[in-house]
Fold:
Amino acid sequence: MAVSPLGWIGPNREEGRTGTDRARIVHFRKVMEFETPPEHLFLELSADSRYKLYVNGIFREEGPQKGDNQTRYFDTLDIGASLVPGKNVIVASVLIYPEAHRRGNHSLFRTDSPGLYLKGYREKKGESPDFIADGTWKMRTAPVEFYAESDRFAPLYIFERARCDNESRGMHSPGYDDSPWQSARVYTFFDLAGVLHPVNLQPRMTPFQRRRVGSFKGIKCIRKSARDRSSWESLLTSECPLEIPPGSEEIVEIDGEVERTAYLSLAMAGGGGARVTILTSECYAYEGEMNPDGFLMPRKGDRTDHVKGTLYGFTDSYEVGGAGTGEEAELYEPYWFRTFRYIRLSVVTGDEPLILKSFRFRETGYPLDRGTKVETSDPSMEKIWDISERSLRCCMHDTYEDCPFYEQLQYSMDSRNQILYTYALSADDRLARQCMEDFRRSVRADGMINCSYPSYEPNLIPGFAVYYIGMIHDHMMYFGDRELVEHHEPAVLSVLQFFRSRLTGQGIVGKLGGPNLEGPFWSFIDWTKEWNETIGAPGATRNGPLTMESLLFLLGLQYGADLMKFIGQNDLSARFGEEAERLRENIRIHCTGESGMLRDGPETEEYSQHCQVFGVLTGTLHPQEGKGFLRETLIHKEKFAQCSVAMMFYLFRALELCGLYGETDRLWDIWRDMIGKNLTTCEEDPVTSRSDCHGWGALILWELPSAVLGIRPSAPGYGEIGVNPRFGNLEWARGTVRTPRGPVKAAWKRAGDKYELELSVPRDMKVRVDGTRPEVKITLL
Structure:
């Protein structure tokens, strides 16, 4: 039968056979000639697993968006403005990982037919392409070796041992001779993995990443150098060349000013045989110990202490070829972006002097457009906002990410918070939609979703599935998209059935898992020092079921009832409501201790702040009794496992419901302490301090506009806001909040025992005034 050209090319058969056990970069090259270049030339392109596209030597784009073994994405890009009369060179550098899970990045899926997909159209989507990637394209493998960052847990697998690729030097030039290169392999219908077939590719759901070229702040300290500080500073800030003599060793530590995610670029001339090592680090720290994942966990204090501290991180190394000249530098640019605040640059020269011409970075991340800003009477809030917004931005790329330095995985618990922060900051739901779609596609045969996705292997925390349902509920409230809720309905029902099928004779959720890797599921709840031995799972897991998993199921049923009502599934909504009431009563009966507090499990007398928080949020505890219990956990911290940064959003909500919002002021001390330790982003938690940047810590981005100013939806689609600001210990607050229906302006101030609130809202937004708060005088502008 006739088979139409597919547009997929890959490494030739010999390369494919010999390279399947290692990660590699393969360059694909094509020269095209135009007497008069077209005004527009639209490329439809994708890769297995990642491409970087260059047109006439200029970097144009990277992609595709992360997919999985069911769905892959393609990008559409107009390169017309980059074309010139005569010969034009297109180069796509493709990152290829082997199929073996532990030999590649955990969040990038791959197949046994790796390579590049490309079709070109003079019209945006013509009947047939004007050209495709085919056997006329040439290919060559770059001399780069990727290695794992840990012997045990290496989710990134992006770090490099590379050497100068003299044979590919000049490949972006029309006059370059690529005759020694091999012809690319053309995939046929029978060769290509089905998920990669063009009819199965889906258009990108999120925008391309932002890019900004930047310079380092300067030198933090010199560990070993014959050159003075000013020479190094001039290199970094003004790109004044710096020459390193033969037989020298130079070690300097460079200040990136703040933590950031960026691509690195080091330009050099001469220096054949020199060895360059680049260590990227979040901070200065002190000697620590290995954690269970195999990472060295240093002790952290003042993140800027270069006198007593050391930079811990991951390294890339590069062997200089000596091909760079004054006119055309030799560049070393690691393929994947790096996360760093500080960099240790080490150079050992051979028999030739090495000239460093420049060292800079290209910052990258999701193009988040901030439309919300809030000021308060507490000056510390401004600094907390600053490190929080930077944290969120660093944890948004193709997906939301837990931490950009260690994992770059999209976890549902983490992402639910990050999505809310994004809504409050920008009213942008594009990455949120992609995130929800990722988790929808991860549903397993048993009804559970992967707790992190895209992920190349199972990663299962049952309670995290409820946060996915929470995402759908949040989107309903902010955007009111019925089709989206209907699209996710099967996955929501599947998750609820997973929990329902595991109810015990007592009518509560039975034992699901325990500490990580001790069973099919990890019952992680929070990072607290009391639960260190059980790796984030309450210690009660050793004795049986966890109350928190029953409370999370209850919360999921409550979210589910609201969602089903929204899409007109009233019978199902009523059923979920009845189930929720029965479960709530069973939790009260079997999980209440002698004091009336909720125990961590029905078989234990251990207690945590977490169970009281979710008891309040689910209505298992009445607000008045919850108020007493929460106050008890705040006063007697030594008796109760405390909510860490990960759970602060929920603790704040419970305090709000119980009339204890003033208690949040002391909780902000966690972030004030971060600032006191000179962090520029929010640390993962104050217990282990593993990562210095974790998106779930950006709580203030939601808290100030949504709670302190009180601007949040009280009806689906932001059709109504309930005016109910939380004053806490503040004297005044004011700001503009971006919503899906337009900006809302609010300002309030204390006037004796009363508060004066001015509010300006879009015309089509309803305002519901809380009549139970006579102390608030409201003026609608």
Observations:
- The first helix runs from residue 13 to 18.
- The first strand starts at residue 8 and ends at 10.
- The mean pLDDT is 95.
